[in-house]
Amino acid sequence: MPRFVVVEGPNGAGKTTTARVLAERLRATGRTHETTETTRTPFGNMVRAQEKWLAGRPLALAVAADRYAHLDNEIQPRLRAGSHVVSDRYVPSSLVLQRIDGLTVEEIWSYNLHTTPPDLTVYLEEDPETIRQRLAARTTLSRLEKTGSPELELELYHDARAFLGARGWRQIVIDCRGLSPEAVADRIHQHLPF
Ligand SMILES: Nc1ncnc2c1ncn2[C@@H]1O[C@H](COP(=O)(O)OP(=O)(O)O)[C@@H](O)[C@H]1O
Ligand SMILES: Cc1cn([C@H]2C[C@H](O)[C@@H](COP(=O)(O)OP(=O)(O)O)O2)c(=O)[nH]c1=O
Predict the structure, then answer these.
(1) What is the 3-state secondary structure of the chain?
(2) Pocket residues for ligand 2 (CB within 6 Å)?
(3) Residue pLDDT, tens place only, 127-137
(4) I need a surface site. Which of 150, 151, 173, 189 has the fewest CB within 10 A?
(5) Which CATH architecture group holds 4-191?
(6) What is the distance in A from the centroid of ligand 2 to the CA of 194?
(7) What distance in angstroms lies between residue 54's CA and the mean position of ligand 2's atoms?
(8) Of all protein residues, whose CA lies closest to atom 25 belonging to ligand 2?
């Protein structure tokens, strides 16, 4: 049975790296599609490019619209065709980033109410100082990356996890400190039934 797995965590925690290694590993068990939010579609690229101008509610709505299109046009068709789907970011990212952008959890959730819960949502945690050093090496940071901090994102991810857990989402936390991306992917794989 194909599975929809989401990788979450603060900027610089290792989402993109982990999602790539995990997808590579899952390919040994069946077809696997790797994807990301905001999407690499023209609409998703526009949202990313306009992130400075589309703040607060307009950004929350644009990101949610991109997410619903992602579900309709990419995630659900791939799952129906028998592929596993691994997404770098999904609803929890909105519960963190849109909150940093001034919205309440209730408003953010109202825009995401009709999304499909993943089979497994993985929250990566890493030492804030390690994350800060990784972000310092990046040449460009988005408006929200500059507004938030590793500590704030970790705290808001904690709230997001409690909120979604109360709504039946199946979730795990991986403490990535000292673990290679392969070791992180191993731990995630242990929670999947294949
Ligand atoms: N488990 C890990 N151990 C050591 N370095 C890592 C690990 N995961 C990611 N990295 C490194 O940390 C940096 C940020 O990783 P990235 O996957 O881009 O994070 P995110 O997608 O969460 O912003 C990259 O340079 C990446 O190589
Ligand atoms: C997925 C998502 C992205 N965004 C916005 C803020 C981010 O700075 C921007 C880009 O997402 P991000 O994945 O962090 O950047 P990139 O793909 O360029 O590495 O999109 C949200 O505000 N909420 C979300 O739920």
Answers:
(1) CCCEEEEECCCCCCHHHHHHHHHHHHCCCCCEEEEECCCCCHHHHHHHHCCCCCCHHHHHHHHHHHHHHHHHHHHHHHHHCCCEEEEECCHHHHHHHHHHCCCCHHHHHHHHCCCCCCCEEEEEECCHHHHHHHHHCCCCCCHHHHHCCHHHHHHHHHHHHHHHHCCCCCEEEEECCCCCHHHHHHHHHCCCCC
(2) 11, 37-38, 48, 51, 59, 63, 89, 93-94, 97-98, 142, 144-145
(3) 999 999 999 99
(4) 151
(5) 3-Layer(aba) Sandwich (3.40)
(6) 30
(7) 12
(8) 94
